[in-house]
Design a protein that fits this description.
By secondary structure, the chain is an alpha+beta fold. It has 15 helices and 12 strands. The chain has a domain of 43 residues. 41% of the residues lie in helices and 16% in strands. It starts with 5 loop residues before the first helix and ends with a helix.
Length: 474
Amino acid sequence: MLLSSEQEVAEAVRDWGPVAQGEWSRLQLYEDYYRGRHRPPYTPETATREFRELVHRGVTNLTPLVVNTMTQRLFVDGFRPSTTSVENAPQWEWWQANGMDSRQKALYDETAKHGYAGCMVTPGKPDPVIRPVSAREWWVGFEDYSDDYPFLGLKQPARRHHPSGMPADTSFDYEVWHVLDDAARWIVRVHGDHNVAVASRTAHGLGVVPIVPFRNGWDLTRYPTGEIEPLIPIQDRLNQTVFDLLVAQTYAASPQKWATGMALPVDKDGKPLIDLRAWAKSLWMTSDENAKFGSLPEANLKNIVEAIEQSLRVYGLTSQTPPHYLLGDLVNLSAEALLAADTTLAKKVNDHQIIFGEAFEQVFRLAGAAAGDDAAANDTEAQVWWRDTEPRSIAQQVDALGKLATMLQIPPESLWEKVPGATGSDLQLWRTDAAKARLRALREGPQQVTGPTNSAERMPGVPGGTPADRALGG
């Protein structure tokens, strides 16, 4: 969308501002669950302060674990001009200049939490500016949900209030909106419901709204679904079950004492003068021969614990999180068993690498347009290189790589990228050292062969020379 006048900007804010506010409200629920602000378990109206404290403690927030288990395995470590290249493209300097090594994790987290996020690219000096943005901060509107770029971007408004102690003036009460269209970034002030005034306009000249969408998964009819949205019902059930366990622990985990046939002395208001609540060191005595004492059996907590474990398994199945991440059960598991349990998560990470990789390639092309570099802006062959973060036994992996080199005659340098934990810097250092070794070998020339080299120097008394000579045809 190209907004050519202040009136069109004002109409865009009036028309799409309420839509953006509704989307921000929807996403706030997922942010609340990520931060541990969940819907509380059922609480009766007669609940005591102690009971309400158990409600608060019953929240067992596992959403950060699900998000981080995936995003911690995502790390872009290079950008190559083609699939056959081993060196980074010149555009990689823009990545480093913008500190994206550290910023990329926040982009993945926001995408996983809310279903989508964005990467804003704007012209800058000396390099284009690349910044991750949250969907809770920037609303992006799509004509079709499969579009590469949104038609409009709106930033969550900042409220400016009238300063205290100054004469009343409604001009101090307004909202500041940022509007992104295909040509510029507008800053507008909204007074009340209808009065919209443009404060500034900064051109970017990129021909598109410069926010590249990052999707947690492709959805052609709505905004993408994040990792938290499908887990909310399961999370609520888990909180309820943990709360039930806390209540049982507090009120029924120990045998409950009872007494009958006792007349307790009371004061003038009818309140007992003796506290008969059962404590660890309490001792009950009476001279009344009709009094009886006893206890009720403690509650069986095993059933509740098993219900919690079952909820965790469903949690893992729904989120494709390996069960041992949630249950912590690693007893007597072989390396092969752990690898098999990790397969679903590995597939999930691989899917996100494909989706995010295409989005990053789009970011680099947009950055090329922002830098005025036509070659970079039209480079469709360059590929994002992801660091291998899957947990593997380095001894087994290196042994397998060695067999590939010796049995299949694959050049060792082609296998260096598959060394567990190898970074782009490591590969560059290894290639540099290998190149230096080859140059040193060329300078020194071929090695001189030592030992007998002609028939006069062969072993005396042995016809035809040494066994080695005969083997070589000497």
